[in-house]
Amino acid sequence: MLSKLKSLGLTGIDGFVVDIETDIVGGVPNFELVGLGDTAVKEAKERVKSAIRNSGFEYPVKHITINLAPADIKKEGPIYDLGIAIGILGASDQLQNKTYKDYLFLGELSLDGTIKKIKGVLPMIISARNFGYKKIILPKDNKEEASFIDNMEIYTFSTLKEVVEFLDANDLSFKENFKVPTKTFEEIALVNSNKLDFENVKGQRMAKRALEIAAAGGHNVLMIGPPGSGKSMLAKCFSGILPNLTFDEALEVTKIHSVAGELDLKKGIITERPFRTPHHTATAISLTGGGTHSKPGEISLAHNGVLFLDEFPEYSRHLIETLRQPLEDGYITVARAQQTITYPASFTLIASMNPCPCGNYGAKDRECTCTPTQIHKYLSKLSGPIMDRIDIHVEVDNITYHELNAENKEEPTAKIKERVDRARKIQLERFKGTKTYCNAKMTVPQMKKFCKLSEECQKLMEMAFTNLKLSARAHDRILKVARTIADLEGVENIAPNHIAEAVSYRGLDRKYWD
Amino acid sequence: MDNYKKFLIFLSKYELTNKKLESIMSIVEDKNIESIDNLIEDADIVNLLSSNEYHEMLKDANERFLSSLIANLEQSEVKVITKKDEEYPKSLADLQDAPMILYAKGDLSLLNSKAISIVGTRSPSNYGKYVTEKFAETLAKAGLTIVSGLAYGIDAISHKKALEVDGKTIAVLGGGFNHIYPEIHTSLANEIAEKGLLISEYAPFIRPTKYSFPKRNRIIAGLSLGTLITEASGKSGTIHTKEFALEYGRDLFAVPGNINSPKSELPNILIKSAQAECVLSGDDILEYYGIDKVKQEKKTISLSIEEEIILNLLKNGEQDFDYLAKNSNITVNNLNSYLTTLEIRGLIKRMPAKTYILN
Q: Which of A71, A391, A427, A438 is deepest in the core (most CB within 10 A)?
């Protein structure tokens, strides 16, 4: 007998529908699974067999053929176990009716018949919804993840037996027990985890201001300072002043994390902007994504959030260069022999570095032991196109003991965030109807339109270039940052003091190093 | 080209010591040797050479080789000056270990101009940078030639400042012109060759060595009326320059620094032991030599109250951003823009680690 039911698969972070066809005929007992599955899919045979027996059903001693269609797309992972098991039960007449045809099945089986959680549920359900499917059966552990999807009937189960009982039941109220109640995003988003607060960072006024501007305009930042000066701490506080994730952004982020299996299953959806800190020994693939079991990399996990690269020059040149496309376009395309996948990767880059290999160059209280050649080599690792994509350079220095113990209150994150939110609002209004959403992403025509300089400003700009020996690449960066500073102030036109402040964040163009 | 110069060009290829060169050349003059072949066959000269040197020389001692050497020099616009030339600096002529030969690129007239050398550490503090720039500016503007060694730190700052104010500068190299050290200063060297003068006692293809740098310091000290030490540690190579200056009876100037700063150790000791004249500004040196200072046009600058406050806070030396923010009561964003405007107007300077200093 033949049975047919539906399941889902993933390419990149988008889902597709898979048909699980099961045919059972007499003959030599055998189990055949076709349809381009990977090893995990093929091993379903053993799991399904034990799970069916241990749940009190009969495993047919016949020739079983299973096909996962479409047969030309690669299928990965143990997510088809449940579908295959139901397919076999259906084809061997152990189910009372054929309601299983109305559902999509996802779930991994263990030998005793329990259903285990799987990865990538959220993107798959979203795709299923887009394809017009309504009913879906999932592992119980994936409940939270699925609870944000409206217009769907989602049922979760912990054992195979439960699923069969559910399919056989005619009682609607019984069925209702397994349905996942939908939650609204706002309910969850309110519960904010304890994050580092700017209140706890003493001193470092310049760096704080620079980060505020960066958050307000979506600018990338490079922090330069000796070890122990608080660069990492500042970076960690940074995600707190970014504007809240919108529901669509949150779904996007959750999708990526779900595919990568990095989702906190208790929460289900990611409500805070991600903060990723890959170490400088990371491989290019772990950063960009891809690999045999294609997974999004660190830069995609930082999508809509912050990518913090500590000790920036220690990352290999190759690694730094791979950041160029995502920093420009907001996504990364990973081409492999078997498939080409595009992952979203629109993040704010916060990089930090020491001023020299020993870290003490320019420090007040310590001596630098580097030779000028060493310093030159260290800094030259960053030259070129990557620096073109970092708008703000800011220096961070050790704070004194006196400052550390000062009684005066520092400004809390919440207050800074208010200003950032206001500035972002102005920008959203300004770029309405275009793809741009913040000043950092302005195109050249947009800059011409929105960064008009008065004569006074132009004169100042010119003087800054000649007197401070700025390099040419600084020009556009200064304009964008000045635009953000003006937005923070709530002013329509860029004024000379905005330009002057923006100029002060171009440290590396100034060469006061040598 | 006379034989004397030709022989020197030939001999200087073998990195002989200056003393050896001198003895050989005096034999050449005494015996009136007229060709390279004769030179290499002369028993007295051969006696002076080590066997290595002799065999090396024997290999390429012919007129063809020599003319190719000279052609090469001409092609790369390198001029050769010997003691017999008019251009040879008078300040060096009487010194007992005066260089026999000088390779030069640039304005030869500078060799006989009034010069002050500025030397010091390769890794100056913010204070050292500031002081060096100030002195170099005043001295160069007053028409003195700034002599230094093209090294990192004080040397490079002095050269750069002199060029910046359209003054004159001489860089004395520790190796040949084809091996500028440090390499990063190649563009600086080119600029000096164009607007000032680059000299070396080594043939262009000779690489600098650990020992050649102290030797070139004698030329730096010798070329100048006086040597100014702005910042140097007690173990610095600057000590060589100082010693040559004292040996040659030239003036020595030192800028006092913080007694706790290891980088001001040498100048402070020199002042304490009265070996060096204590100078507080370039004007002190000009006064010492009776040179008129260039009148600075006093610009009347209108300052806002906030700018006055900032300048006042910087009066006692360099301060960092947080200090200024705390003590000026100006909001961080405004402070940033005031500081930049002040900097653009040339009133203050920004140093590494967000430190500011009065200009």
A: A391
The answer to whether B184 contacts A399, with C-beta atoms less than 8 Å apart, is: no
Residue to mutate among A205, A224, A509, with most B CBs inside 10 A, is A205
Contact of A372 with chain B, judged by CB distance below 8 Å, is answered with: yes
| The total number of structural domains that make up chain B | 3
- Same domain (yes/no): B279, B138: yes
Same domain, B184 and B327: no
pLDDT tens digits, A337-382? 777 888 999 999 999 998 888 888 877 677 778 887 888 888 888 7
Chain B residues within an 8 Å CB radius of A460:
341, 344
Of the candidates A208, A363, A501, the beta carbon closest to that of B340 is on A501
Rounded-to-integer distance, Cα A29 and Cα A159, Å: 26
pLDDT digits (tens, 9 = 90+) for A445-489: 999 999 989 999 999 999 888 888 787 778 888 999 999 999 999
On whether residue B284 sits in a domain, the answer given is yes
Is B94 part of any domain? no
Within chain B, residue ranges assigned H as helices are 3-11, 18-31, 36-41, 43-48, 51-60, 63-75, 90-93, 126-141, 154-164, 186-195, 212-223, 238-247, 265-272, 282-288, 305-313, 321-328, 332-344
Same domain, yes or no: B119 and B202: yes
Q: Which residues in chain A touch residue B123, judged by CB atoms under 8 angstroms apart?
A: 368, 371-372
Do B196 and B69 sit in the same domain of this protein? no
Structural domains in chain A, CATH included, are 2-183 (3.30.230.10), 198-441 (3.40.50.300)
**Contact: A372, B340; criterion CB under 8 Å:** no
Structural domain that includes position B49: 1-75
